[in-house]
Amino acid sequence: MSRIRLLSEEVASQVAAGEVVERPSAVVKELVENSIDAHSTRIEVLTRRGGISLIRVTDNGTGMDRDDALLCLERHATSKIRTGADLALIHTLGFRGEAVPSIASVSRFRLSTREHGALVGTEVLVNAGKLEAVRDGGDAPGTQIEVRSLFYNLPARRKFLRTEATEASHVEHQLHLLALGHPSISFVHLVDDRVALQLAPAPTLLDRIRDLSGPELASELLEVPPTEENGIRISGYVGRAGVSRSSRQQQLCFLNGRAVENITLSQGLREGYHTALMKGQHPVTFLFIEMDPGAVDVNVHPAKREVRFRTPSEVRDAVIKAVRGALEGDRARWSGEFRATPQEGQLPQPVLQQEMPHPDLPLPAPAPRPTLQIPPPSRSTTPPPSTSTSSIAPAAARLPTELPREEEAEPAPAPVPETFRFLGVLGKLFVLMENASGLVLVDQHAAHERILFEEMQRRMETQGVPSQRLLLPLTLRLAPKDADWVERNLELLDRAGITLESFGTGTFKVDALPTFLKTEDPVQLLHDIIDDLRETNAQGARLRMGQDMIAKTVCRHAVKANDTLREPELVKLVEDLLRCDLPYCCPHGRPTMIQLSYLELEKKFGRKA
What we know:
Blueprint: H1 9-20, H2 24-37, E1 42-48, E2 54-59, H3 66-71, H4 99-104, E3 108-114, E4 121-127, E5 130-137, E6 142-148, H5 155-158, H6 164-181, E7 186-191, E8 194-199, H7 205-213, H8 215-219, E9 221-229, E10 232-239, E11 244-245, E12 251-255, E13 258-260, H9 263-272, E14 282-283, E15 285-290, E16 296-297, E17 308-309, H10 312-329, H11 331-339, H12 393-396, E18 421-426, E19 430-434, E20 438-443, H13 444-463, E21 467-477, H14 480-488, H15 490-495, E22 499-502, E23 507-514, H16 522-534, H17 538-557, H18 567-578, E24 593-597, H19 598-604
Parallel strand pairs: 1-7, 12-15
Antiparallel strand pairs: 1-2, 2-6, 3-4, 3-6, 4-5, 7-8, 9-10, 10-15, 11-14, 12-13, 16-17, 18-19, 19-20, 20-24, 21-23, 22-23
């Protein structure tokens, strides 16, 4: 007796709907994407009870005639593609022809549409996938779709929905993504007949980001200069160094106008921000990627959120280059703000290091402010620096031979630059300085870490990674995928200071390791390094491993919190920091400098509201 049976059309529709329609937000996504594909300039979305009771999407797009209105309810009926070759040339958000019939099969569905210039439109009523009525409609040109009582005929699916507030938040998130991807379109979102979101067409992407995320976040973003490499065009905005979140909620990437998720993009962002973010933090990004549709497969899942690239390494390299370019390009602005000279008369001359007069003596007349802003003499008991002292002597004296030393020159004491007014040191850790914007606090440990890190990194790039042969070689056993990757990258690992030799199936003999690699369990560390390097491209793998090792090494040898530095050493430390490629943060992602503006200080003291 045959056990295989053909499913009925009703059951097949409900099965297919489970892939496309997971929750109300998926309905909103599919319908709004159809409105965008119809060249709409205004889209209005109304939801009630989080979209469970009612979802209404109204647009002013091209509309449909009666034949198309009926055909769009048939499975795999679409106007986006014609042949299999068109799957490699997809420029629209929708193309599968599954969304509308799937939604209609699990709800009470109403479609009203009218073409521009047509005298009458068409209204179609569908109940759980069954056509109930087709009649003339008199709505405005465009299309309006109502989805009522979602999953009313599938109680097992309906009970898996979350609370109304949770479902409403998912709908709002989807609308934010669609609005960000298409800033030239006006969006209106009504929640239970209340206006929750109203966006006018934005002239620029930054204006749309400001409308959705607020001016505070918009002010912390860096523009990614539009670049093109290997046919991949990247633009958008990324957060400055130190602007991060504990989740990937605001790590947004758009591919050809579609919000997507892909591990290649996540890896590229992480590599681009490497050493500019604290561990466990994720960058804030609004990255837009334009590329040939034939080089990416969006037909991976009916939700169309997951994509696959034909050449993922090229996409990853392009993202890394774009993000690093934006971060390094911000150095001039950042450095200029901190170097801005305090204006005359902005604040009284600091007296943090001047001797206070005796209370019984008359107060002396205020001395005129020097034009070069030479700092007042220090009250520290430390003797003045001699001409034979290195620029940062306490740190240099502790550095091992493999770390860079400051040159033992004999210059005259470095004068305080005109761009800063040195105030003092707080808690033997924070350097206090004044610039045109207000008070500057410098973490001397984090600053010295960044200086040593970049100096050591330059040495590695030019001279390679120093390695040391092991007295007794180690044996490393790897899983098949890891062994295959190692076999293909033996030369790369050798340049990174790790000498491996094949020693049988899935086994390698380790003959040499980098000299600065200090660990009690080198085999486990090698496993961790290989796992990490597999996620990077071949070009960045060697430097990635080197950077991680350098960051740990320089942390032990940079000046510490209680190290006392003399004034010229502190000034030299700040100047060296400003010459770094990424002076904003230490190699672990912590900030090196913090600016407290005059406005913030005045608010703290109640001088301004």
